[in-house]
Amino acid sequence: MNSRILITLAIGFMAAPAMADTEVNETLDAAADGNVEVSNTAGSIEIRGWAENKVEVRGTLGDDVEELIFERDGDDVLIKVKVPRHHGRDIDGELTIKVPQASSIEVSGVSADIDVDGVLGEQSLQTVSGNVGIQSASADVEAASVSGDVDVAGTGKDADIEAATVSGDVTLSGLAGSVEAGSVSGDVLIGDGSFDNAELETVNGDLRFMAELRPDGELAMESVNGSVEVEFAGDVSARFDIETFNGSIKNCFGPKPERTSKYSPGLELSFTHGDGDGYVAIETLNGSVSICNK
């Protein structure tokens, strides 16, 4: 009897149709330079700028998703994957979104990766567990993750950039203007660019600045456990204040570091290069410091 029941149940499960994700393919007219807000709890969010004055949403929604909210109010467009308060596991939304190139975007996720390319307006992107990636940034950017990497590549136009993560690396390139970048546990790298102001910090990780510091520009770098490396693109004119508690200081501009005390391994180095128009402050507790020109 038990065997017959098990066989019957097995046949029933095999015959039952598989629960399929819901396909999404919707389009709305939109302002050429409006604001697009996207919210997705889990899955992925891919946004691309295009020449159409429309917002297009394609992708799939998990079986436990309640609905996709896609609506326009004036110059604002809202895209939200809505899940019930007491939901199952299948709440992923895998979204590919096209927006007018000049749009500004606000994107939030919980367990979701965010990837943006070709959007020329301001961007505010944040997720809890996931990576954040931006290509072709041309305006102000705020990008943050709690657990994930943050990568921002720009077009060289001046903007205010803020990039941060708790656990992950921050990598920035092709940017200009002002930048604040930090990680609690991870490396922070500025690969190239030109800056009036740059602030980099990490608790456990290395810092690298390989870019131009403009005349009258300021660069501040601070690490608790990690090395600091600076390679200026072109000449630099600045006052330098550098200090390590437990680490060496390598300086390609000439002056040698001095001991902060005969009772501790700390080193410090203060000097002026060129006319001293700008200011560079570097501090690390456990790690070496290297400053040079490319």
Draw up the topology in text.
Layout: H1 2-15, E1 22-29, E2 35-50, E3 54-61, E4 67-73, E5 76-82, E6 92-100, E7 104-117, E8 123-129, E9 132-137, E10 141-147, E11 150-154, E12 158-167, E13 170-173, E14 175-185, E15 188-190, E16 193-204, E17 207-209, E18 212-225, E19 228-232, E20 238-246, E21 249-251, E22 258-259, E23 267-273, E24 278-286, E25 289-293
Parallel strand pairs: 2-5, 2-6, 2-7, 7-8, 7-9, 8-10, 9-11, 10-12, 11-13, 12-14, 13-15, 14-16, 15-17, 16-18, 17-19, 18-24, 19-25, 20-24, 21-25
Antiparallel strand pairs: 1-3, 3-6, 4-5, 20-23, 22-23
Keywords:
25 strands; 2 domains; 294 residues; single chain; 25-stranded mixed beta sheet; Pectate Lyase C-like; mainly beta
In short:
The protein has 294 residues and is mainly beta.
Overall geometric form: elongated
**Class derived from helix and strand content:** mainly beta
Relative helix content: under 10%
* Rounded mean pLDDT score: 91
The profile of the biggest β sheet is:
25 strands, mixed
Order of helices and strands: HEEEEEEEEEEEEEEEEEEEEEEEEE
Report, as a whole number of angstroms, the end-to-end distance: 81 Å
**Uncertain parts:** 1-18
The number of distinct β-strands equals 25
- State the domain count: 2
